């Protein structure tokens, strides 16, 4: 038989509850520390990637700004400005040469009455329309009036304006009346 004897002055206390509670609290604390450490590391890593991307974008922006400045300097160069102006002039000449001369002569032949002739035609591109300035000679006032009526009724011509009218002073001139006209011509 065993006899339990307590020789101490105070009774024996059990600290088991405290030890279990402290172990649980410590385990939760360590888990929270691990989770927070992982989140901090992942945020740091994503910030590092974002900073690298931002640096790449900044360097590309700097290169593009430098390139833009070089292009601006190039295009402001007097020699380049002169070349651009010459190119614009040449393009306008090409557009004038692309004018459908055959179509306008066919349209004028259709509406010209007897005794009227076209002395000169000068086309000018104004936006999307073709503005014609032409000089017409007529043998009589009657043929001049027939021409003006047929010109007004032609669907290809619009905004007709009589710029000047001159009568022949000498009898040896073939045209008794010379008209200077301006009209818009529909190419379509």
Which regions have little confidence, pLDDT < 50, spanning 5+ residues? none
Write the H/E string, N to C.
Answer: HHHEEHEE
Quaternary status: single chain
Q: N- to C-terminal separation?
A: 129 Å
Largest sheet: 4 strands, antiparallel
Features of the shown structure:
about 190 residues; alpha+beta; Alpha-Beta Plaits; 2 domains; 4-stranded antiparallel sheet; 4 helices; rod-shaped
Short synopsis of the structure:
The protein is an alpha+beta fold.
Question: How would you describe this protein?
Answer:
- The chain has about 190 residues and is of the alpha+beta class.
- It is about 55% helix and about 20% strand.
- It is built from four helices and four strands; from the N terminus they run αααββαββ.
- It has a four-stranded antiparallel β-sheet.
- A hairpin with a 2-residue loop joins strand 1 and strand 2.
- The radius of gyration is 49 Å and the shape is rod-shaped.
Topology (SSEs and partners):
Layout: H1 16-76, H2 78-97, H3 101-111, E1 116-126, E2 129-138, H4 141-153, E3 157-167, E4 177-185
